[in-house]
Amino acid sequence: MDLFPLRMAGRTLASSWRHFGLRQATLQTAALGVAAVSRASMALDHVFDRGWKSVEIRRPTFIIGAPRSGTTFFHRLMTRTDEFPHWQAWELIVPSLTARRLVRPIVPRIVDAFGKGFEDDSTLFDGDGHVTSATSIEEEEVLFLLRMDTQFVNLFMPIAFDDADAPEIVYNDAQPDERRLASARFFEACLKRQTHLTGKDQILAKMPYSTLRVRTLLEVFPDARFVYMARSPFETLPSHMTLHRGFFAQRYGLDHIGEGRLAHYWERRYRYNVALYRYFEDILEEGLLGDDQLHTIRFPDLLDDLVGVVDGVLDFTGYTVSADLRRVVAEQAARQKHYQAAHTNLKLEQFGIDRQRVVDDLGFVFERYGFPTG
């Protein structure tokens, strides 16, 4: 029996109580209960919807890279015309096809019960350039939350503020074979279900944190391809931390967390993001991914030549898309020539990170992709 999710759940409950008391511990218990029921409900598909078991996942494409490197923008753009088997936010919490049919009618009421409007894009979270609603298209990385095996645990659960790190949910490829492969097989089963449900088999999954899971993904999907989004750490780091700060403000209230615990988290968040950049650099140095399995997009190109970037990805993957999607891409390319961000990221120094430290730690990123260090 795989006890890892249970152990992580126990740790998150203890952290909830220690850091925030009864209310957060109760909410965390409810959330973990939902996750447990959701995982258990997947067994229903073996009885009531067995067609997914015969699905083969061929040549999936995974969008990876540092968080806030353009992955959300690109993923949401490519899924705008419903041509890939994507997931709405609530579906990621209920991957079981059978359970989804049962709960779908009551999902709007559940969201409303928390004071959220089901069709309002600003409902669940709206901050720092990432709007989330129950029906917004979200990243497949969230599926690993059901196994407590993703850095999202550090965002959504109070272990983020523990004194001890949680390397087991960060350095995925370094974990015991049984655990890491179980998570990847669980993910594969989820992809099969969604492919079966939608009838679409061109997998384009967004999973930045799984940049630290590339080796495991290759074991389970040996023909996988990776689209790596490259953006300057001077931009990704403050953007990512600003996003998390906004989430923490909404979820807990910054005053309830305290400056000391926040400072500890920013340092941890910095180290983990540096580790992601370094890990992928190691993969490149080893030549683990050939030209037929890796395609890189520089963030400036995403802004300046969106049509060319999309054409490059389609050439790389061999995926076919509709004229509607090409029109959407062209319209977006025209709009973003006049784009101005609606949000302002805090500066690195406001998180206790010196720019020279970033250059010292991540000089290889600036050098490889030609990002300025000044």
Question: Can you tell me about this structure?
Answer:
The chain has 374 residues and is an alpha/beta fold. The chain has a single domain (4-369), classed as P-loop containing nucleotide triphosphate hydrolases (Rossmann fold, 3-Layer(aba) Sandwich). The protein is 53% helix and 8% strand. The chain is built from 17 helices and eight strands. The chain has helices spanning 4-20, 22-41, 45-48, 71-78, 89-93, 97-103, 107-113, 152-156, 177-198, 214-220, 233-251, 254-257, 259-286, 299-304, 306-317, 323-335, 355-369; strands spanning 61-65, 87-88, 125-127, 130-132, 137-138, 204-206, 225-230, 294-298. The strands form three sheets. A four-stranded parallel β-sheet has the order 6-1-7-8, with helices on both faces. The protein has a two-stranded antiparallel sheet with strand order 2-5. A hairpin with a 2-residue loop joins strand 3 (125-127) and strand 4 (130-132). Helix 9 (177-198) crosses helix 10 (214-220) and helix 13 (259-286) runs parallel beside helix 17 (355-369). It is globular. It starts with a helix and ends in a 5-residue tail after the last helix.
